[in-house]
Write a structure and sequence with these properties.
This protein has 393 residues and is α+β, with helices and mostly antiparallel strands. It has ten helices and 20 strands. It has two domains: 270 residues, FAD/NAD(P)-binding domain; 97 residues, Alpha-Beta Plaits (2-Layer Sandwich), CATH 3.30.70. The protein binds flavin-adenine dinucleotide (FAD).
């Protein structure tokens, strides 16, 4: 099959959906290719419960999002599904709660009714043709066969830098031993009279099992989140990065071990069971573009502004070190920094943009930029930039 478009978006996580929406709204004929059968990417695979990165830092309840736009639209649609949803405060930050199914519904609702946007699910981008420093064609594989797409611009929203890698654009990634801990989530149902203590007692009992050497050290960073009803909850376990089949088998084995410890140690978990698991390992750090500019730790913590700043963020630098576990370095209360458009543009492939997890950022800066709220706004800005380039040559 041969298709043609103005903007091709690779990957339909939150960044990809926002990029495709914005490009299409700017008048570009847009195609989004996503290898899963649903939108939302890591947020869905890893059963996230909160959108992080939407608000400025500090203790005061936020009166609006930092970037507005599609991030606001998504929150508005989520609120229609659960009226009364408000940002919740956790430590020094505010988060927007959501249920996984509602995020899929919302992303579908916004994208399926969008004019000039074609959504190709179960379609994986597998190669690209570069000519004179521009991507001319993108090749994808779907259930029905090969697809060749000619395009004016490409936005890599694959999370793992698939198009950046395939096109030979400059990229960077930390060596395997330096990458942060990855995550794997599972849902528990049948919890009886849980009370409010599970987020504290779950890590406590898993840490005890680590001390007794029953499970590996990194499981002591296990987190527990309340589900949509009192009787369900979500456990997020930490594991070393790598998405091989053996690593997924290992993650499932440790999920079962963690649940076994909880069922043995906490009365309310005794008759519970695991009813859902992540479909893969959720990586915090993957291959990223080496863009026209690389955002640094100093930029984030000093609240730096840029002449081409397009996205605001105030999320702390959140790193999941293998030895130290999670650490958070916060901006000053009320402060925020900007991400410049140059972090979304390839210096060597003229019509290649990126958004979401694969923008040009140091590992530390990525610890702040990679959360969903920021990824949505990055997608929106990449969509705008890619469409502008095409319409006004
Ligand atoms: C363990 C863990 C917990 C987290 N918790 C939170 C949280 O609670 N709140 C929060 O806001 N953020 C959280 N994050 C961060 C957040 O999940 C992601 O960084 C964010 O969702 C990334 O969005 P994205 O669109 O850039 O990428 P992704 O969501 O990874 O989407 C990329 C999409 O591209 C598709 N794709 C990949 N390759 C191809 C290809 N070749 N062709 C076609 N499609 C392709 C994938 O299937 C995927 O759907 C967490 C991250 C991790 C790892």
């Amino acid at each position: 099959m041969r298709l043609s478009c103005d903007v091709l978006v690779a990957g339909g996580g939150v960044a990809g959906i926002a990029a495709a929406l914005r490009a299409a709204r700017e008048g570009a004929r847009t195609i989004l290719a996503e290898m899963n059968s649903f939108p939302g990417g890591t947020a869905i695979n890893c059963m996230h419960r909160y959108i992080c990165g939407l608000y400025s830092s500090g203790h005061v309840e936020p009166d609006g999002t930092l970037n507005g736009g599609i991030a606001d639209e998504i929150c508005t649609e989520l609120k229609k599904l659960v009226p009364g949803t408000k940002p919740v405060k956790m430590g020094k930050v505010h988060l927007f709660p959501f249920a996984t199914g509602n995020l899929i519904k919302t992303l579908r609702l916004l994208s399926e009714k969008q004019a000039r946007l074609d959504l190709l699910y179960e379609t994986k981008v597998v190669s690209v043709k570069v000519q004179n420093g521009r991507i001319r064609n993108v090749f994808a594989r779907s259930n029905t066969g090969e697809i060749e797409i000619s395009t004016q611009a490409v936005i890599d929203c694959s999370g793992e830098g698939a198009v950046i890698r395939l096109s030979g654009a400059s990229s960077h990634i930390s060596p395997p031993e330096e990458r942060q801990l990855a995550g794997f989530c599972f849902k528990i149902t049948g919890i009886e009279e849980p009370g409010d203590m599970a987020p504290v007692s779950v890590p406590y009992y898993i840490s005890q099992a680590v001390i007794e050497k029953k499970v590996p050290d990194y499981l002591k960073y296990t987190k527990f989140y309340q589900g949509d009803t009192e009787s369900e909850g979500y456990c997020l376990i930490s594991i070393p990065p790598g998405d091989s089949p053996e690593r997924i088998r290992e993650a499932k084995k440790y999920a079962a071990a963690v649940h076994g410890i909880l069922a043995d140690s906490i009365d309310s978990f005794r008759n519970s069971s695991i009813t859902e698991m992540s479909s893969g390992i959720a990586e915090r750090e993957g291959l990223r573009m080496k863009g026209e500019y690389m955002l640094t730790e100093e930029d984030v913590l000093s609240g730096r502004k840029f002449h081409d700043g397009v996205v605001k963020s105030a999320w702390p630098i959140e790193l999941w070190d293998r030895e130290k576990g999670p650490t958070y370095r916060y901006l000053e209360p009320g402060a925020w920094y900007q991400i410049p458009l140059r972090c979304l543009k390839s210096p060597d492939i003229k019509n290649l943009y990126c958004a979401g997890r694969c923008i040009s950022a140091s590992p530390e800066a990525l610890g702040s930029t990679r959360v969903m709220g920021t990824c949505i706004s990055l997608g929106e800005q990449a969509g705008l930039a890619a469409a502008k380039e095409m319409i006004v040559p």
